[in-house]
Specification:
Four Helix Bundle (Hemerythrin (Met), subunit A); binds protoporphyrin IX containing FE; mainly alpha
Length: about 240
């Protein structure tokens, strides 16, 4: 039978928030966030995960329909959705002190996971976009295609920015981190915008009617809002720490 811990031993167990502030927070030495901010950001974080889950399922459904028409070229959709919406979005969320799954990791561990997710996500997103660019005879004729190209270029730039962050962050850690976080966020916003235009432009083929398209676009917009909110709070906490 399991023994019940005594009240005195429980008093010494650090809470998740305390662990986070000691090891994994944006600024381990900074003042603790207010209870209101803490609660709000935890709710925003949970909603963001729920909404992004729904967006991923809708993206995969589009890929499934597309595979019936175009066969292996549906890889474009799977790779871009997994790269941008699953991996790169989680790479951004993993650094937030309010993110559920990464909360008990130390700052060093979070940084490592951020790198792995970011590299894997960028590799999939870049491959997914290039597959489609090579396959399309008349390139960049649609809004989705043009914005997708900008997302691809920003993804490459973000990777270069990430390497600069790694090499030079000792020179001016704060400004380099803020610039890196801002460029990463801009990249994701542009990629999500391209996804929104994909949902809207190909609605008749993939999402079977206007109401589903509106649902898909709304879920994407609100999910992206949650991602942006987490990232901006992180950036501001860095600026004022
Ligand atoms: C974040 C996700 C996505 C990104 C960044 C992205 C990016 C791109 C890029 C760069 C191209 C090549 C444009 C060209 O050469 O003209 C493209 C084409 C295409 N994509 Fe996506 N894509 C995404 C998701 C999707 C989804 C979910 C669908 C299906 C609903 C889709 C359907 C297509 C189609 C049909 C084309 C060829 C026609 C066109 O250029 O619009 N894509 N995409």
């Amino acid at each position: 039978m399991q023994s019940v811990p005594s009240a005195s031993s429980l008093a010494n167990v650090p809470t998740v928030t305390a662990v986070n502030q000691e090891n994994g927070g944006v600024n381990p030495e900074g003042p603790p966030p207010s209870l209101l901010l803490l609660r709000t950001m935890h709710v925003v974080n949970t909603l963001t995960h729920l909404l992004l889950g729904a967006v991923i399922i809708l993206g995969v459904l589009c890929g499934n329909y597309y595979s019936i028409i175009k066969g292996p070229l549906s890889a474009h959709i799977y790779l871009c959705v997994v790269g941008y919406v699953v991996l790169m979005s989680q790479a951004v969320l993993s650094l937030s002190p309010y993110n559920g799954w990464s909360q008990t990791f130390s700052y060093q561990e979070k940084r490592f996971m951020h790198w792995v997710l970011q590299i894997a996500g960028s590799a999939l997103a870049i491959t997914g976009s290039i597959i489609k660019i090579v396959d399309t005879p008349d390139n960049f004729q649609t809004v989705h295609g043009i914005i997708g190209l900008i997302a691809l270029l920003l993804t490459c730039l973000s990777m270069i920015g990430g390497i600069i962050n790694l090499l030079f962050f000792k020179v001016n850690p704060k400004i380099i981190k803020i610039l890196h976080a801002s460029l990463g966020l801009l990249t994701l916003c542009v990629a999500y915008l391209s996804l929104i235009f994909a949902f809207s432009d190909y609605s008749n083929i993939f999402l079977n009617g206007v109401s589903n398209v509106r649902l898909a676009i709304s879920l994407t917009v609100v999910g992206l809002g949650g991602l942006v909110a987490s990232s901006i709070v992180n950036i501001f906490q860095r600026i004022y720490s």
